[in-house]
Amino acid sequence: QKEVEQNSGPLSVPEGAIASLNCTYSDRGSQSFFWYRQYSGKSPELIMSIYSNGDKEDGRFTAQLNKASQYVSLLIRDSQPSDSATYLCAVKANAGKSTFGDGTTLTVKP
Amino acid sequence: GAVVSQHPSRVICKSGTSVKIECRSLDFQATTMFWYRQFPKQSLMLMATSNEGSKATYEQGVEKDKFLINHASLTLSTLTVTSAHPEDSSFYICSAYGLAGGPEYFGPGTRLLVL
Question: Are A92 and A25 spatial neighbours (Cβ–Cβ below 8 Å)?
């Protein structure tokens, strides 16, 4: 079992729909959770950080964390074609390296 | 957000030569930086963790004599690919974080092509 697992994808949604990206992790000591967006040929870009249970909203993005279920998700409302990218979930215990999932590729169709 | 730069963005070299890639944290001090490699349509692969003032920690299967890492200051880490071969052609990305528990911020990456 991988330490961080994401929907295998690819995920395709129509423009204007809600895209839901899911991630589970195995280390119960994880304290920090991040979502990155990576466009093809580019490096990852941080879009959300979440540290406590519940929801965190930033514009069209909402991150949800449930430590008891070891589950973190990212919702993208009103999806746009420019949201088409690979989304990486990352989990971190404290100091040191993050553990990344393999990513879910999202395509938003006009 | 924090800014990490990388130089060069793209390099083409002949087989057998060495290539140095620089990674700088521009607006924060990074005691720890990471080096990743990514092949087309594949996941990020962590190569090594670079700590300021100490030896880098390499992931299993990464040759430390081939991928030399130096982290001489709190804002600069370098990766040198020694005696590069065509199979070393890849997208090399560095990242850094400033606060324990905080996110990694990635540089824009360096695309290496070895002929």
Answer: no
Report DSSP letters for B35-73, one per residue.
Answer: EEEE-TTS--EEEEEEETTS--EEPTT--TTTEEEEEEE
Q: According to the model, what pLDDT value does residue B86 have?
A: 97
How high is the mean pLDDT of chain A?
A: 95
B1: pLDDT strictly greater than 80: no
CB-based burial label for B106 (10 Å; 0-12, 13-18, 19+): buried
CB-based contact, B103 to chain A, within 8 Å? yes
Give residue A2's pLDDT: 77
Compare all CA atoms of chain A with the CA of B2 and give the residue at the minimum distance: A46
Option in A31, A46, A103 nearest B103 (CB): A46
